[in-house]
């Protein structure tokens, strides 16, 4: 038996590992299973190139819990190690078995996706174990070896009687980590980290019912057998070519990723690139609607089918973190514990690629089946609008597929919008005015007035729409968006003709004085307008600029500082050509005049959904009194 000290640069390496190197103790199982997988894939590669003269067979990994003995076993049937290799890879931390392996076989292994690393990953075992044993036999015709270490730099290494190729790691679970002897805990970790590992992983057995033979009698009782409980899918959908998958395959995999998600995804985007970096994955668009409070962290990051994290910030562009799915890349740089991403140029390239790929796929979906794309628009628009605001590269491509729906369920791209609206909605200064509503029901009367003029009204109701139209206006100088209730329609799209007021200047001043005596001047600014006599006599509007800045301030990232907390301010537009304006002006009894103004004001408030509480109760009572 050999004894000695592990060649480490610091005597207290194990406390450092336990406290600082790994953020989360539970990842020890991921690391040890990853090592077992790597050892198995190495053997596969060596047999494929004729270097290993052994039968590869159908190897599996096995995890066993010995609760009574307080031990956890991880067993593989991979490449194994000789005593000399144990000495080198386990005792000498300065060496990396993976790097040496890849260097030796780099010409044949570069595309095989192997990332072997006996070394630091193995030492994560000491986060939960008071003693660790390795019993290993190499594929080479050499004796097996048995290595033992109690968490100090001292170790023992002696021959073992193991006859089967591969490695068994035995963790003697420490008293502060006994939770890792519970089947439910281990099963949960395997499902979290190793659900899609490329080698089958066995954890216990399960009872399987055999199918009933065709010629079985009526009283036949189905037979059951005990079979290996394989907890993982070694060939998940993202590892396959898109041409080998159909819509049902993608949906099945979605539910495998999210077993508690009962709603179907709208569509998916399959990522598959091998230059200048390697990346595969599948992103799914779930139904999102207009809710900005979407739970993120639903995209899972893998490295060679090993789960790393569900925090993909930096790799996946922020606007796509509202999606679901999988990203797998060996080229994403991780720190030594694989638990944290390092920001570098490679990560930025990957992010840019994903942005471009998503944009291309959306364009393709739009072109292939526009009607289907339009039907899904309200469920995906928040992601795409956010993408236009946050990613310049996405914004550049978005014109080909981002839609602008009307209140009558017609859908335009921006170019189509310009073409269809230019004849009727270009004002006297040559600017195209795009009218929109934020709420079809609340702004119904304003929409109706616009439609009577032959104008189109868009329905733009996402919480970030003010930010987006601001950006669109900045990039399209002859285009302006105005909400349909921000002024009278004749002021929103000004034409050459100027209506003439029936009232003289003195009469207009008297009318304004009478109205201002009733309204709250801190909330309402009274404006007199000479409009069509059939237009509404009183109308409440909210100035586009003020409302938009307020909305942008409330949703963050734009607008003017503090505007989100400013009180609501409105314009009260009085149509001087309406019969009611003349009636108010000619009513000599002040009480009756005030009564008329209040009623007209409340009706205008009602059309904007501004009449509430006591004011609404008073209005209803006053209205009943009028029809007694």
UniProtKB/TrEMBL annotation:
Pfam families: HATPase_c_3 (PF13589), HSP90 (PF00183). It comes from the Bacteria. Keywords: ATP-binding, Chaperone, Nucleotide-binding. The keyword Lyase does not apply. InterPro entries: HATPase_C_sf (IPR036890), Heat_shock_protein_90_CS (IPR019805), HSP90_C (IPR037196), Hsp90_fam (IPR001404), Hsp90_N (IPR020575), Ribosomal_Su5_D2-typ_SF (IPR020568). Gene3D superfamilies: 3.30.230.80, 3.40.50.11260, Heat shock protein 90, C-terminal domain (1.20.120.790), Histidine kinase-like ATPase, C-terminal domain (3.30.565.10). Belongs to the heat shock protein 90 family. This is Molecular chaperone HtpG.
């Amino acid at each position: 038996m050999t004894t000695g000290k592990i060649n480490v640069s610091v005597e207290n390496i194990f406390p450092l590992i336990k406290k600082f190197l790994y953020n989360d103790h539970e990842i020890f199982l991921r690391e040890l299973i990853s090592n077992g997988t790597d050892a198995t894939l190495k053997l596969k590669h060596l047999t494929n190139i004729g270097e290993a003269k052994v039968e590869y067979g159908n190897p599996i990994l096995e995890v066993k819990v010995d609760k009574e003995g307080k031990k956890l076993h991880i067993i593989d049937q991979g490449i194994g190690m000789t005593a000399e290799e144990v000495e080198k890879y386990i005792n000498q931390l300065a060496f990396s078995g993976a790097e040496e392996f890849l260097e030796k076989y780099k010409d044949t292994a570069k595309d095989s996706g192997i990332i072997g690393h006996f070394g630091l990953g193995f030492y994560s075992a000491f986060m939960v174990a008071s003693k660790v044993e390795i019993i290993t036999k190499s594929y080479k015709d050499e004796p097996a070896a048995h290595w033992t270490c109690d968490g100090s730099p001292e170790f023992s290494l002696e021959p073992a009687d193991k006859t089967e190729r591969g490695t068994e790691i035995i963790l003697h679970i420490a008293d502060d980590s006994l939770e890792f002897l519970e089947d439910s805990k281990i099963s949960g970790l395997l499902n979290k980290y190793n659900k899609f590992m490329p080698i089958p992983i066995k954890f216990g057995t399960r009872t399987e019912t055999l199918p009933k033979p065709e010629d079985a009698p009526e009283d036949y009782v189905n037979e059951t057998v005990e079979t290996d409980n394989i907890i993982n899918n070694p060939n998940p959908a993202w590892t396959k070519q898109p041409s080998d998958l159909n819509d049902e395959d993608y949906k099945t995999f979605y539910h495998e990723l999210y077993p508690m998600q009962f709603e179907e995804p709208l569509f998916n985007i399959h990522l598959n690139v091998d230059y200048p970096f390697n990346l595969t994955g599948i992103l799914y668009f779930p139904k999102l609607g207009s809710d900005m409070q979407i739970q993120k962290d639903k995209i899972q990051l893998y490295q060679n089918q090993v789960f790393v994290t569900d925090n993909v910030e930096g790799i996946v562009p922020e606007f796509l973190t509202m999606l679901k799915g999988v990203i797998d890349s060996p080229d994403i740089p991780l720190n030594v514990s694989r638990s944290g991403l390092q920001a570098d140029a490679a990560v930025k390239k990957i992010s840019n690629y994903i942005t471009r790929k998503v944009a291309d796929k959306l364009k393709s979906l739009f072109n292939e089946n526009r009607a289907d794309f339009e039907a899904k628009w309200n469920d995906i628009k928040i992601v795409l609008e956010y993408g236009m605001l946050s990613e310049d590269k996405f914004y550049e491509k978005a014109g080909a597929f981002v839609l602008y729906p009307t209140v009558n369920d017609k859908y335009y791209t921006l170019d189509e919008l310009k073409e269809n609206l230019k004849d009727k909605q270009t004002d006297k200064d040559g600017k195209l005015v795009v009218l929109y509503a934020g709420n079809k029901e609340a702004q119904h009367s304003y929409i109706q007035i616009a439609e009577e003029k032959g104008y189109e009204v868009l329905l733009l109701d996402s919480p970030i729409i003010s930010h987006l139209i601001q950006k669109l206006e900045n990039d399209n100088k002859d285009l302006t968006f105005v909400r349909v209730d921000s002024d009278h329609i004749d002021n929103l799209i000004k034409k050459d003709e100027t209506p003439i007021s029936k009232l003289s200047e003195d009469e207009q001043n008297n009318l304004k004085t009478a109205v201002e005596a009733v309204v709250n001047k801190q909330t309402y600014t009274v404006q007199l307008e000479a409009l069509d006599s059939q237009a509404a006599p009183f109308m409440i509007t909210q100035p586009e600029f003020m409302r938009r800045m307020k909305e942008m301030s409330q949703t963050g990232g734009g607008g003017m500082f503090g505007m989100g907390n400013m009180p609501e301010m409105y314009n009260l537009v009085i149509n001087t050509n309406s019969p009611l304006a003349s009636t108010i002006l000619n009513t000599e009894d002040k009480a009756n005049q005030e009564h008329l103004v209040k009623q007209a004001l409340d009706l205008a408030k009602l059309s904007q959904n501004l009449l509430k509480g006591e004011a609404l109760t008073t209005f209803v009572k006053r209205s009943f009194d009028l029809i007694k």
